[in-house]
Amino acid sequence: MFTGITQAVGRIAAISEGEASRRVAIDFPDGFCAGLAQGCSVSIDGACLTVAAPPRGERAEFDLILPTLVTSTLAGCRVGDAVNAERALRDGAEIGGHALSGHVDYQAVVEQRKECGDNLCLRLSVPAGALRYLFAKGYAALDGVSLTIADIDKQAGWIEVWLIRKPAAPPRSAPSNPAAG
After folding, report:
1. For the chain, how many structural domains are there in total?
2. 134 DSSP assignment
3. Is residue 83 one of the residues assigned to a domain?
């Protein structure tokens, strides 16, 4: 279980391609891997991944199986790419965001960006099959970040989410990039 509150931004350090899978090594900021062991769950851009080998320093490795590659944005990751990371929620910990399973159901596409002062509105196109589960004031995760749905048009197939921009940290997803939901 995750909250959708990014705890760290990691960098893809290495990728090994398998027949229908890939292993990614991710470098994390100091302290993120403290207590992390093989078998632990970590949300990487919203996908619940299992630590595949004992971490070495601040580097951990994860295996991406075919269903993860198909439903998430991780098939498109490259060495040097930034990824949002969150450790699994501990029993009794505060849930500052929303309860997320880390099971990615679809990829949305950022269709429109509107800036309003220090606010940023993203309009995301969502597959028709997913729209029945979404509603205004509900939530969806974008690259592992849990966001409240501000508006929805099920006929047109989109949702809108709003963010408060921080000048030093613009959103990672470009308008034409897919985002995991």
Report:
1. 2
2. -
3. yes
